[in-house]
Amino acid sequence: MKRSGQENGFTFRSEMGEREEVPEAQESKITVNDRAANQKVDTEQSKKSEPVPALEALEVKKRYPGVDALDGVSFTVGKGRVVGLLGPNGSGKSTFMRIAAGQTRPRSGNVLIQGLEPGLQTRKLVSYVPEHDHLYSWMKVEEAVDFFAVFFPGFSRERVGEMMEFMKIPRGKKISNLSRGMRTRLKLVLALGWNAELLLLDEPLSGIDPASREKVLQGILQGCGERGVAMLISTHLVGEVEPLLDGVVFLEEGRVQLKGDCDHIREEYGTSLDQLMRRELA
């Protein structure tokens, strides 16, 4: 049976393929659904076009017996950015670093490295320098270089050699015979010897004399500046690292007290980050 024309606001199509009218209400519903679908596609495409941060912390919590080491910590480190994870001793900085390095897991929440959970896939992306001395003391400096060259793909002996010369690290000495400041320089040089996308520095200046601190910071700039490596530096020595920082996260008792762009924070509070932390955390 073939029908044509308009009846009651409908346009319709017969079984033979003629145009069939659809109710006006249904046409409106289809239009709304189409718009919603298009908006969803636009949103998804916009998300895909946004750069993935080098590190993203999402409501990270970690508890040890009797204490909340981290309590809902959230922030990001963009690619090529240098962010300070600042706070007094015991504020949760080292715990966060170990989670980001994949050495321990959070109780809840997550840390993502370029969108990936810490694990085998992220080990080639992250270079982690812990506060404790993790080098083999019985090795000579040159042997430590050989050791790292075996385990880290893309390790550059040329870059390491240049930085060792800049840092004035004696190649022939045993690590056990180096001063604490010199061992810290060596840890940093070895960490910068391969093409990591994210550098995690946990209290790199702790226990180091002022002269060595300056050399360590100069080494960081020389090793990372031109390559655009993202860095997260944890320290309570805010005044020493402030000139390096693009952004900052202040921790106290495992909670984020303040975070943001360094210039904006200095402008808003009318003081340096060092003075701000001394004032707010006193």
Strand portion, in percent? Answer: 15-25%
Shape: globular
Mean pLDDT: 81
Strand order of the largest sheet: 5-6-7-3-8-9
Cα end-to-end separation: 88 Å
Description:
The protein is α/β, with parallel strands linked by helices. It folds into two domains: 49 residues; 226 residues, P-loop containing nucleotide triphosphate hydrolases (Rossmann fold, 3-Layer(aba) Sandwich). Helices cover 37% and strands 21% of the residues. The protein is built from nine helices and nine strands. The strands form two sheets. It has a six-stranded mixed sheet, sandwiched between helices. It has a three-stranded antiparallel sheet with strand order 2-1-4, with helices on one face. α4 runs antiparallel to α5, α4 runs antiparallel to α6 and α5 runs parallel beside α6. The longest helix has 26 residues. The protein is globular and about 50 Å long. The N and C termini lie far apart (88 Å). 30% of the residues are buried.
What does this entry show, briefly?
The chain is an alpha/beta fold. Helix content is 37%, strand content 21%.
Name the descriptors:
Rossmann fold; alpha/beta; 282 residues; disordered N terminus; 6-stranded mixed sheet; globular; 3-stranded antiparallel sheet
Annotate the secondary structure layout:
Elements: H1 24-49, E1 55-64, E2 67-77, E3 82-86, H2 93-100, E4 108-113, E5 126-129, H3 141-151, H4 157-167, H5 180-191, E6 198-202, H6 210-224, E7 230-235, H7 238-241, E8 247-252, E9 255-261, H8 262-269, H9 273-280
Helix pairs in contact: 4-5, 4-6, 5-6
